[in-house]
Design goal:
single chain, about 270 residues, mainly alpha, about 75% helix, about 0% strand
Length: about 270
């Protein structure tokens, strides 16, 4: 057990609790730059880490708040899971013929971090606009009638899922921040609580499938995974309780700027 990994897990958990930003956008760059892990191992380990840590969150959202729209989760998964599996098969094929995939993973990670940084800035605007609309959070309401694109809404949701499937499998980034912003845009009348719960519920099967796929490819460090989990769980708990005392309008722009710089570094490698 490495205490450096555990402390890093705690620090990332703290930031996740404070800002609500997905752990992948923070953890994966940390593992690559600070500890020198190969991008593929950092991505694979973080995917399983995300699948485990997000499960508790969904239990709370579904059981306590009833804030998961399972119909939308199904539409997202219809796009994300097949594309995640396809991406894993492509990675396995490239590895079997001796093709190096590190460059593709690194570049995709950079793009995902840049998109996440932008989504952090856009999210507050979408939330402000959504606050002006009458929310629809009735269990008998049809979420599809509460959003944009009308008849194209289901295909648009499946398409968003497909993009997330490829992006998350290659980078471990995007299931949280990008998924939330996409849902805010497509379903502006849904409450923020339901948006977060729905995105979280979709992230679990996606990160689990992608993580297990990377495990089969040998891209998961089990000792690293255990060390990160030990540190992150108390970090998330403390960060969640401190979040009300620290102004989000300060934290999000700073975090977005850091992610943008890291993303540019990955893209330009």
């Amino acid at each position: 057990m490495n205490f450096g990994y555990t402390f890093s897990g705690f620090a990332v958990g703290l930031l996740v609790g404070l800002t609500g930003v997905g752990g992948g956008s923070l953890m994966t760059p940390l593992l690559v730059f600070l500890f020198g892990f190969k991008p593929a191992v950092a991505v694979g380990t973080d995917l399983l880490f995300a699948a485990i840590t997000k499960t508790g969150g969904v239990w709370v959202h579904h059981g306590k708040h009833g804030s998961v729209d399972w119909k939308i989760v199904g539409w997202l998964a219809l796009g994300s899971l097949p594309f995640a599996v396809t991406t894993l098969f492509i990675l396995k094929h490239l590895s079997s013929i001796g093709k190096e995939t590190t460059g593709a993973i690194t570049y995709t990670l950079g793009i995902a971090l840049l998109l996440t940084a932008c989504s952090l800035l856009v999210r507050s605007v979408l939330l402000h606009k959504a606050a002006k609309l009458k929310p629809i959070d009735d269990e008998h309401s049809n979420a599809a009638n509460a959003g944009r694109f009308k008849h194209l809404q289901i295909p648009a949701t499946v398409l968003i899922g497909a993009v997330l499937g490829v992006l998350v499998t290659l980078s471990s980034v995007g299931a949280g921040a990008l998924g939330t912003v996409a849902l805010l845009f497509l379903y502006p009348r849904m409450t923020t609580l339901k948006i977060v719960g729905t995105d979280l519920a979709h992230a679990i099967p996606l990160t689990a499938v992608a993580g297990i796929g990377h495990l089969s490819l040998g891209n998961v460090d089990v000792i690293l995974l255990a060390s990160l989990l030990i540190g992150s769980l108390p970090g998330i708990w403390i960060g969640s309780h401190l979040s009300a005392k620290i102004p989000e309008k300060f934290l999000r722009p700073v975090l977005a700027s850091i992610l943008m710089l890291i993303g540019l570094k990955f893209v330009m490698q």
